[in-house]
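Question: Now follow the chain.
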Amino acid sequence: MAICNTVVPIKSKSGAISYKAQSQDEDALVNAAARLHMVYANKNGNILEIRFHGLIIQYEILETLEFTSDRKRMSVVVKDCQNGKILLLSKGADEAILPCASAGQQTRTFVDAVEQYAQLGLRTLCLAWRELKENEYREWSFMFKEASSTLVDREWRIAEVCQRLEHNLEVLGVTAIEDRLQDGVPETIETLRKAGINFWMLTGDKQNTAIQIALSCNFISPEPKGQLLLIDGKTEDEVCRSLERVLLTMRSTFSQPKDVAFVVDGWALEIALRHHWEAFTELATLSRTAICCRVTPSQKAQLVELLKSCDYRTLAIGDGGNDVRMIQQADIGVGISGREGLQAARAADYSIGKFRFLKRLILVHGRYSYNRTAFLSQYSFYKSLLICFIQIFFSFISGVSGTSLFNSVSLMAYNVFYTSIPVLVSVLDKDLNEETVMQHPQILFYCQAGRLLNPSTFAGWFGRSLFHAIVVFVISINAYAYEKSEMEELSMVALSGCIWLQAFVVALETNSFTKLQHLAIWGNLIAFYIINWMFSALPSSGMYTIMFRLCRQPSYWITVFLIVAAGMGPILALKYFRYTYRPSKINILQQAERRGGPILSLGSIEPLQARTIEEDVSPLSITQPKNRNPVYEPLLSDSPNSTRRSFGSGTPFDFFQSQRLSSYSRNCKDN
């Protein structure tokens, strides 16, 4: 415990010793050894100093056999500086250490201890050692250095050489470490489930440990609320039969409110991904919760890739170096910075300090970002199409001569100055308060369904731009074409109508006004006139005195008023009708916020679709862990159910599941 690690001791000026470790497990083991009076005191080069009851014992590190996800163990070769003995010290998973035990040693006691600790939700490690002869070590050391310096298949060669040394071990004992949950983990998972997010737990722990941790954080529910199905087997036939049983049960219970999950270990998962890809893919589309234990970093990345192939939107969250490949493979990567280091945080798209911050990241910032992006992208098309349609209409009455209604200065300033500032300030817009969004996570379904950004909404903005172009062109032409007016005057009237319409469009689509938004919308309108007055004062600008003459004409302001009234009237009427007689759940919440009253229930946002099929499987029993007092709630009984492809007749939510965030790595440690 004190020697077989990569921990670096740091001594303060007061003499206190602290440890800098790559993993929390090593830090816990070294501190536990120190409490047992075996203090890791100092490291000077390859010389370790262990203080035992005031006596200093020195060991020389000869070789370090690094931990890998394939070997699932690490070892060090040390030399006792007192008697010159060479020792091999190993620690790792029980499945990696116990098979390497010497033939004469009874390991049943250790197996029982591992199972007992796993039932309590503790992470276990086995410790072993053996003494090496000097000739054996020198021969092996030569092969190890040769494998370490090779350029082809280095990792495979090193693992093969390590296997030659790590055998005939004497198992010393089993350690158990509590992986303490952070505050707010069960509540965060429950809230995100209500938002329609599926969870997959990918961990390297034992099966029993993973199940108990899943129970403690409300990841799964105990019976009779929950049902856990087991996929196991060591051969292809065993895994195939187990997978078929679980798949049949998933089909039969898919539309039921019962919390059904499946658990699979790394060995069975490898067989399923290699030989039964289609069946496991179908299982992935049907399952809302999954626990994958004893998985390697490459398997985590494979599972994320599988979920992406099922048209899921995946979010992977992790806190250690083993989660980097999974985070990079997912559509969205979130890293937790803490005691596990910063590898995951640096490889991720977003970095958070605690797992509970994920709720705010998705429900608040994610939803606001989607709403703002949807408006910004569609409004940008709208304002560009508006000016293009007017140019097209003008080409018909100009004989398709190629003459532009607007001069080059107006076209350049249109996108750069006149219409860019108001929409950029819309990034501050909030349709609902943050507290309301957190209290009603079901409204995230609207984002998952793409209700604000889809072909139909784009067609609506396209139609709005065409309608506004007709209004501006028809009113401007009829007001000024038959008078003794210049071409520049007609151009400026049409441009003024466009700018006024867009100011009211942005104001209509804004949900929460601030001083900055008022300044951007109406101040930009004032800036339009100031800029054109400046150009009208320049004799060489081609717009000399145009804006001064227009502003003195009552007909100009009447024309602008008619454009705004004709362009915004139907849109306001349609918006009023929808808001009053066909309000969405978001509109209901907006009304409640303005009235100051609470909303007790939003009802069912996502409809149910029943499916029936024969039920035939015996579930794995789930028991509540002892010495834990979490609040167990049915995670799916009060959240809307869904199907993957269809949601009933007349339902616009036709691709909820394809937008779900599905990948989850156990990272709920106490940072």
